[in-house]
Amino acid sequence: MAVKAGQSGFTLFELAVVVSVIAVLAAVLLSRLLAVQQEAERVAVQQTVLALRAGLRMKVLELYAADRQNQLPALAGQNPIDWLAERPSNYLGEYTAPEIAKLPQGHWFFDRSNAELIYVLNRGNTFGLGRSELLRFKVSLRQASATLARPSTPVDAPDLALIQLGEADGLK
Asked: How confident is the model over 80-124, as pLDDT tens digits?
């Protein structure tokens, strides 16, 4: 009696098909993970900027309540991170003329020489810019004119705002 030996295992073709399918699925998964990481970074930066703007408003209201409006112009050169109850975990501190290439990605720092708050983007995340790896913010002071003044604001009151220098899509 001759017993035919049955084939056990995969053929080389079947193995190649399975590996190809797994490779395609892995590529799709990795691209989706990258997109999710970029969106998470964008939302985290947006949340920090909103907190900084709220901190600035609170500081301005505090000065108005204490009848110290004459100190408002001094806010323009200050570090807005100081106005937060808690500093972000990815805040590096204050630097004078930093070497940005040596700083870690995905972190905030304050540049004293320009009085700018800067966020160093992760290399893969461009927020739609494609040309800049930095998001720059500055506390700006401008005098409100009589035509632009709100009814509750005196005509000569300074207007303070945390503005973004340059433009990044998806970040307001």
From this structure: 999 898 999 999 999 998 888 889 999 999 999 989 999 998 865
Global pTM value: 0.70
Query: Residue 112: is it exposed, middle or buried by C-beta count within 10 angstroms (0-12/13-18/19+)?
Result: middle
Round to whole Å and give the CA distance between 155 and 9: 84
Answer for the pair 140, 73: CB distance below 8 angstroms, yes or no. no
Tell me the chain's radius of gyration from C-alpha atoms: 26
Domain ranges in the chain are 12-165
* SS3 of residue 25 by DSSP: helix
CA torsion sign, 116 to 166 to 42 to 129?
negative
Amino acid type, 140: S
The structure tokens 């009085």 sit at 115
CA 168 to chain centre: 10
